[in-house]
Structures are given as C-alpha cells and as structure tokens.
Design goal:
The chain is mainly beta. Helix content is 10%, strand content 38%. 21% of the residues are buried.
Amino acid sequence: MKHYIILTLLLFAAGCSGGIKISGTVTYEEDGSPVKHGSVVFGDAQNTYQGLIKDGKYVSGNKQPNRGIPAGQYKVWLLNADDVDWKPNADNTDKVRVYTQNVAPEYTSSSTTPLTFEVKSSGAKTFDIKVKRAENSVR
C-alpha cells in the first residue's frame, strides 16, 4: 500500500509539471511585419497548446496561465489571425465588423500547415514563425 501511495504521488507530480514555456515572434515572410493578433497552436496526435499573438509576439501555454508544453514534435498553425475593421452597413445606418484573413490558408489548419517544431527539454525555447500572406490580404 505504501508503494502505491508513493507511485500515485510521483505520477501526480509529473502530470502537474509546468512543461516548457516557449515564446517567439510571428511575422509575414514577405516584409517581416508582425501578425498583429490571433493564436499560435502547437499540436500533436493527442493535445493542443495555444499562445496568444499580441503585436507579433506569443508565449505558449494551455488553458492554465503560465504553463508550458511537454517536450515533443508538434505541428504549428495559426487561428483567428484576422484583421478586424468596422465598415458602414449597406444602408449606412450602422457599422458592421469585417474580418480579413491575412495569413495564407495553409497556415490555418493542422492538416495543411507546413510548420513543425520540436520542443526539447533543453536548448532553444524561442520559436520564430514566418508565414505567407493571403492573396487578398490588407497591407
């Protein structure tokens, strides 16, 4: 019984570890300008971890603040990396929100992204991401 309790505590402690905190920049490869907002997603076959993009910078984590991700090989894609603008509606009586997708579509899905990163327990904790602009993007 004593060994069972010790093993349970060790497994619980391992599961509660904070993981590896990573950060970086997200820029357009055409001109180096930042992707202003959205989310960076690191995903493997079982889990996804997100980091919010703010003015081209992100920090990874999950639903709990300041938590990192486990070491491993991940696909990386972006979510909600849209520019938002307010434009007059058809009869000019109100404004409506208009979203423009500025990131090329292949970077917005786990099944089409060309981006992969290996997160190691030691070494670089910074992953800078370069993406192509969508053909109809606002500059």
